[in-house]
Amino acid sequence: YPSEFLMQKITEDNQIPVHLHVSVSLQYVAGLKGRALVEFFHSNIAEVENEELRHLMWSSVLFYKTPNVEVMACVLLSTKAVYFLLDDSFIHADEHQSDFWNKENSDCENSSFHLSCCFVLKLNDLQSVNVGLFDQYFRITGHSADHIITCLTRDSYNTHTFIQQLMAVLSLLARTPSPEPVDKDFYSEFGSKNTGKMENYELIHSSRVKFIYPNEEEIGDLAFLVAEKMDGLTNLPSLNILLYVLAFQVNHFEGSAQNTSSLQPKTLILTSSDLFLFDEDYISYPLPEFAKEPPKRDKYQLADGRRIRDLDRVLMGYQTYPQALTFVFDDVQNQDLMQNLTLDHFGE
Q: Can you give the residue range of the structural domain that contains 223?
């Protein structure tokens, strides 16, 4: 252990997305290759001597208790746990931990020694995995609010690969078998669903971890919500969501020492007539079983919406993935300007 193929794969995956900035300690991790990376895992991260590193992925993560702080993490999957090696910025953003971390770190601020905090979720504590729409993100749920984490991969391939690796590792776990199911009759099987709403598609793994995928109704609900935001929409049934993608909105700050830009996470939704940007809550829905009250904000909050027919041009950058797109709209304050002009000119 480990095989050459696995080491090559982990080395290839060990690349920080170019558009995201990370701390020096995580840059050090990203510079490790092959056997050095595996040795780093065993000497610094692994909790048990005989656990094997199976998968590595870089992703933005959100914690249930700090839903507004998106932080970069190196996600390491082993045969015992999922490890989230976190950026330093999270330590300072989380008030509950800041005192503890600052006290520990005070001695090594001026040295070449860099410390990251590592969050561990043991596979035995894992209860369910919720996969987001179009595999753009997934949420891992443990037994308490501290153990709910969303990985915003913004990439269906990365999501799919991680889920496949996680299922393979969970298959190795020796858990006590579930009790034999009680035979249900026809009426109790089909009569118990009194909610009138179709449940999400669930796959219960042999380790008893639930993998929950969104169903068609979730897209229908989203289309209805989008329709509510569109003024004067007459043909509701024909509204189709053509594209749903997790992206960043670039806010450019001019006049500073150097022109800088910040990336604001947004959900971009394209319909046949409009382009929308939403602020989406990726961590609170569906509600965990222990939640006492609904989240403070809705799952989707409209940030911006423009009509496609007002789109003047689209500018594309020439850099490699991720691609930067600039949408230029006609800056017309009154959307029905032509109609009003006609009335004023020809009507009484």
A: 216-329
